[in-house]
């Protein structure tokens, strides 16, 4: 089951199985911390949406629907921002396919697809995908308190 | 903990209203898709999605609407959206849905808009 470790006052980690039924647990976890960090209701919901989309990508794509692995969600905040890192050992996100112009074109043509990463970028100030040498994929998202 | 979606269909004057409540995310989107598919298969092309009880929507839910709209509009129908909270509207707005779909404040207004088309 899920495991929440409070590392420091402003540092949180959630390790949770890759099951879509856990998305609400992840959203609630993020929303509570975003509020605590000082974000208003709209911004807190935006942050939870971005994290939901990132975790959905892990569940649907990185693990091809398998539910025997874990997603790790790390959250840190300070006086002007919140930083969320989501990592997994799956096949990685297709971030290169989800540029804004392509998604906008699909939206205009009423086609689905690519919306998740598009929403992550809309909801957060910075979204950076990374794949390091030990096959751990990660996305790091930052939102500033404006 | 409740993580599910609640749906019921009300048919009136050749308009089918799908009331959607709860959480519409990657966990529940397939149930939402099945309901819309059933409506289409039974010849309902004038569809209202009433989101009065909807707590949450992610791209999984938006994708279902996008995935079915072409078929419905090709049959001279439409999917129109109504009674969503500001929180839900925010997600639609982030992806530019208001310029692609008709969104109304009340169920009554939405029903009338179908009437004015024919």
Question: Could you provide a short overview of the structure?
Answer:
The complex is a heterodimer of chains A (146) and B (118). By secondary structure, chain A is of the alpha+beta class. Chain A has helices at 23-36, 41-62, 100-108, 115-123; strands at residues 3-8, 11-17, 70-77, 81-88, 126-131, 137-144.
List the helices and strands and how they pair.
The complex is a heterodimer of chains A (146) and B (118).
Chain A: E1 3-8, E2 11-17, H1 23-36, H2 41-62, E3 70-77, E4 81-88, H3 100-108, H4 115-123, E5 126-131, E6 137-144
Antiparallel strand pairs in A: 1-2, 2-3, 3-4, 4-6, 5-6
Helix pairs in contact in A: 1-2, 2-4
Chain B: E1 5-12, E2 15-24, H1 29-41, E3 46-50, E4 54-57, H2 59-74, E5 78-82, H3 86-94, E6 103-104, H4 107-117
Parallel strand pairs in B: 2-3, 2-4, 3-5, 5-6
Antiparallel strand pairs in B: 1-2
Uncertain residue ranges of chain A: none
CATH superfamily of chain A: Histidine kinase-like ATPase, C-terminal domain
For the record, the CATH architecture of chain A stands as: 2-Layer Sandwich
Overall, the morphology of chain B is globular
- The radius of gyration of chain B is 13 Å
- Using only C-alpha atoms, the radius of gyration of chain A works out to 15 Å
End-to-end CA span of chain A: 36 Å
The topology string of helices and strands of chain A comes to EEHHEEHHEE
The topology string of helices and strands of chain B comes to EEHEEHEHEH
Give the tally of structural domains of chain B.
1
Instruction: Going across the biggest sheet of chain A, name each strand in turn.
Output: 1-2-3-4-6-5
State the CATH topology of chain A: Heat Shock Protein 90
């Amino acid at each position: 089951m899920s495991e929440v470790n409070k590392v420091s006052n402003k540092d949180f980690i959630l390790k949770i199985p890759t099951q879509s039924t856990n998305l609400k647990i992840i959203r609630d976890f993020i929303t509570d911390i975003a509020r605590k960090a000082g974000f208003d209701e709209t911004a807190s919901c935006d942050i939870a949406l971005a994290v939901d989309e990132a975790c959905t990508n892990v569940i649907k794509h990185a693990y091809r629907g398998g539910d025997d692995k874990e997603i790790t969600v790390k959250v840190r905040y300070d006086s002007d921002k919140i930083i969320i890192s989501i990592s997994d050992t799956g096949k990685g996100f297709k971030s290169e396919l989800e540029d804004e112009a392509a998604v906008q074109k699909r939206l205009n043509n009423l086609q689905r697809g690519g919306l998740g990463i598009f929403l992550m970028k809309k909801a957060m100030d910075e979204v950076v995908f990374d794949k390091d040498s030990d096959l751990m994929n990660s996305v790091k998202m930052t939102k500033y308190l404006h | 903990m409740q993580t599910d979606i609640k749906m019921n269909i009300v048919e009136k004057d050749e308009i089918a209203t799908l009331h959607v409540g709860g959480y519409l995310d990657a966990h529940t989107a397939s149930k939402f898709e099945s309901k819309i598919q059933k409506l289409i298969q039974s010849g309902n092309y004038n569809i209202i999605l009433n989101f009065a009880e909807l707590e949450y929507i992610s791209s999984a839910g938006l994708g279902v609407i996008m995935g079915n709209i072409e078929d419905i509009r090709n049959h001279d129908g439409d999917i129109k959206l109504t009674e969503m909270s500001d929180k839900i509207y925010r997600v639609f707005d982030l992806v530019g849905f208001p310029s692609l779909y008709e969104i109304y404040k009340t169920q009554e207004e939405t029903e009338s808009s179908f009437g004015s088309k024919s």
